[in-house]
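In practice, a research group might receive sequence data for several interacting partners and want a quick structural hypothesis before committing to experiments. The following worked case mirrors that situation: the sequences arrive first, and a predicted assembly follows.
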Amino acid sequence: MSIHGSRILIISMDAPTLRDIRQAAERIRPYAHRTPVLTSASLNRMIGAHLFFKCENFQKVGAFKFRGACHAVLTLSDEEAARGVATHSSGNHAAALALAARTRGIRALIVMPKDAARVKRAAVAEYGGHIIFCEPTLASREATLAEVVKETGATVVHPYNDRRVIAGQGTVALEFIQEVPHLDSLMVPVGGGGLISGTAIVVAELSPGTRIIGVEPAGADDAFRSLRAGRRIPCHQPRTIADGLRASLGDLTFAIIKEHVDRIVTVGEEAIVAAMRLVWERMKIIIEPSAAVPVAALLERKVDLAGQRVGIVLSGGNVDLDRLPWPQAPCG
Amino acid sequence: MSIHGSRILIISMDAPTLRDIRQAAERIRPYAHRTPVLTSASLNRMIGAHLFFKCENFQKVGAFKFRGACHAVLTLSDEEAARGVATHSSGNHAAALALAARTRGIRALIVMPKDAARVKRAAVAEYGGHIIFCEPTLASREATLAEVVKETGATVVHPYNDRRVIAGQGTVALEFIQEVPHLDSLMVPVGGGGLISGTAIVVAELSPGTRIIGVEPAGADDAFRSLRAGRRIPCHQPRTIADGLRASLGDLTFAIIKEHVDRIVTVGEEAIVAAMRLVWERMKIIIEPSAAVPVAALLERKVDLAGQRVGIVLSGGNVDLDRLPWPQAPCG
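A structural hypothesis for the assembly, expressed as tokens:
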């Protein structure tokens, strides 16, 4: 048991390698979409660069999160799998884990605050996830999850601070640089840091000339401040419409980001909404506010990438279509 | 001059051939996008068929209309081109002709009712079209266009009842059946009939086992009634949210449809809005109401295509994002 325990510790503390990410790509291939890369002549003109958009809004469950969750579920032993998986989340990771579990025919137990939005509950339920409601506090979420694990023996799949999850998210970059080589910069939204961590590991080895730029909402800028301070400074009261980016870095994602990420920039809320709307209007695709954050950095000229080949990960497309973040004109 | 005149007559009255459409594809290739075909597991499950969506919402100007307008502009002699092109339209054809003209470096004169929506005027202006306002009646539009032509010698490019335009629209089907062979059915929205005419000519020769199903809003069902009556019955007061489908068939498009189209079905307004919303939500792409019309026919079970391979042309994605056809929940 102690050997088993120490192996778990090493796995959960160590960053995945490029080899892990390549294995993840092989494993998830039958289940996840290889998402398309789109371009837009009008956005290129507007920004003055060659932009390439990796469309994870077209991924299963509408977000890149399916890759990491799927990989984590597929790496379980049969014995572990039989006891199911669990997490606390009300966002895309919850839906992703539910679908990933269904794919393997096992149970997903999702702890969710009882005030979670109707559409988010519906998404998890649709993919067959079993929802356990808790009070809307972090303490209640963690206590409820601990109880679920104790009762069921389910394996907790953390949304980002997990080697297997990071390896899964890294497959976005693997596909991206395969399809679009020689990117000068690659822009990625930063929440808990799973996506940018996986991206950074791939790019460091396979495309070292590509600069990685993380982008955060100014109202949830823990990665920006943590990187500057050299230690993790979690954001206790994130305020941003980009609901996928309200989480703070974990120790594992922070360590990877510190080593590999060139720069984190922050953007304001108005720019996020403007960027989201611009992508809807010009590219005819639906992206969620979190996915618009890197585009907002370009619109706000937070980075000067003039003439560059710039990759942008559009991380997801889950939006409540009944609550758009811009006003509707009166009818008629 | 009389020989020239009679050649024009034959060209405008005769349907294009498959060869014409192949030539159109060659001609427009440097300018138009080859649009992707998307699929959706959740829509497949919902409808019980294998659906393939040809995404003309990703075409230049956001609609298939660019293909026909571009082809028409490219077939002009240098002498004709020097005098420019003209049309009366307030929809996607206007924007398409403006961009097509700019592509060749010539002038596009667009007659538009003075009450046309701001976004539509803006689209034409953005692509460099020259707008001439008229009264919001068909008589005024036609008189103003005639005047423009008399003054400038510009070539009129009709939005659909034109051999060159139909040949351009036919390139959608050419790409579609190349990428997705052995379709059992192919569903196309019907307005003036340019898209379905071009589609029908391609399918009749290259994929004769594929059934072509035209879909119209019940509030603009002239093709349905015309096909049943065996003669053109224009719709004088179309009432539908699908603004791209308010036009009535021309003599040329009617003749082609009569010969080649298996069936026209009609759908209600509520189903159109529901279908549009469903595609936004599930596929994360923005389509306009006109493009949702074939999907509405599937939702309403107007056609039984269970288990079939069904192609659907998503004709465009130009929507005023400030005036969505469903209510927004109050904030908070």
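Before designing any experiment, note the following. Chain B is about 45% helix and 15% strand. The beta strands of chain B are 37-38, 50-55, 85-88, 108-113, 130-134, 155-156, 185-189, 211-217, 263-267, 309-314.
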